[in-house]
């Protein structure tokens, strides 16, 4: 069975080429894997077949783009992910149980249910309120130790504490704790959300699970508050600020950079960093 790290590399390759007409054969051939062996290993690690994974990512990412870029036509969004107009609508409806048109209407909201408080509704702030806490920043590339999580983002807190305990000997005074997030948990099935938990490290690190997070220009929102309220804050940024900002995501993944964590009280200071162009 292929090592988990090799499967992670194939996932990275798929993500990089998601807007191409990528196939299972393309991925297996790129890494010189036997197609049968690769497919069996991929499903064992991720719980999905390669084909299912690629199709789901296309439909989830296109829905996220529809939410952020409200003036871009549904047809053009579908075409960006390799679909004709009619095929995209059919595939989207089958996957999300809602038509693309109705989905876009459903994103015009002023609040959202918080999975940490299922009985309540959290209201979004205004564009100006979000904008006042956002600064444009240039980040370097970050060399990091990472572990990839596929599952519910609600489990991130516990996974973080286990991760920090596991790699405590690699932490220094200037070590940054970073999440690289791929999915919108309001769109992707909760048990399928993809996230990398990371610690910055030096190029002398000999661990296998080391990768580079791409830097560049980001819109950074400074969040200070409870861990349980991060979800709705991020949803508000993407639902309210992003569509009105005049900026677009450029294909890189978003980053959450933690500046302070109060484990006992569940309080954090962090920068929610959106890659922009």
Automatic annotation (TrEMBL):
**What Gene3D superfamilies does UniProt report for this protein, alphabetically?**
Homeodomain-like, Regulatory factor, effector binding domain
Q: Which domain of life is it from?
A: Bacteria
Occurrences of domain HTH araC/xylS-type (ranges): 8-106
Where are the annotated coiled coils located?
none
* Gene Ontology MF, one: sequence-specific DNA binding
**Protein's UniProt keywords contain Cytoplasm:** no
UniProt keywords (A-Z) are:
DNA-binding, Transcription, Transcription regulation
UniProt keyword Ribosomal protein, yes or no? no
* Annotated protein name in UniProt: AraC family transcriptional regulator
- Origin organism is Anaeromicropila herbilytica
């Amino acid at each position: 069975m292929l090592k988990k790290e090799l499967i992670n590399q194939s996932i990275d390759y798929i993500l990089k080429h998601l807007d191409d007409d990528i196939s299972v054969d393309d991925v297996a051939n790129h890494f010189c894997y036997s197609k049968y062996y690769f497919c069996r290993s991929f499903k064992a690690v991720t719980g999905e077949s390669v084909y299912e994974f690629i199709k789901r990512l296309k439909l989830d990412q296109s829905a996220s783009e529809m939410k952020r870029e409200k003036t871009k036509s549904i047809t053009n969004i579908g075409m960006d992910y390799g679909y004709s107009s009619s095929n995209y609508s059919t595939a989207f409806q089958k996957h999300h149980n809602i038509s693309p048109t109705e989905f876009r209407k459903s994103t015009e909201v002023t609040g959202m249910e918080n999975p940490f408080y299922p009985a309540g509704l959290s209201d979004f702030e205004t564009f100006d309120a979000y904008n006042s806490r956002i600064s444009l920043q240039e980040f370097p590339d970050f060399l990091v130790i990472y572990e990839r999580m596929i599952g519910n983002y609600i489990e991130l807190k516990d996974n973080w504490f286990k991760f920090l305990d596991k790699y405590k000997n690699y932490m220094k005074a200037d070590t940054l704790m970073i999440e690289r997030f791929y999915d919108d948990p309001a769109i992707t099935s909760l048990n399928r959300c993809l996230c990398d938990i990371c610690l910055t490290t030096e190029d002398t690190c000999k661990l296998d699970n080391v990768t580079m997070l791409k830097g560049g220009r980001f819109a950074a929102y400074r969040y200070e508050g409870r861990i349980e309220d991060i979800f709705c804050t991020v949803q508000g940024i993407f639902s309210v600020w992003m569509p009105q900002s005049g900026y677009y995501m450029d294909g890189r993944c978003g980053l959450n950079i933690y500046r302070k964590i109060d484990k006992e009280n569940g309080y954090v200071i962090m920068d929610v960093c959106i890659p922009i162009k």
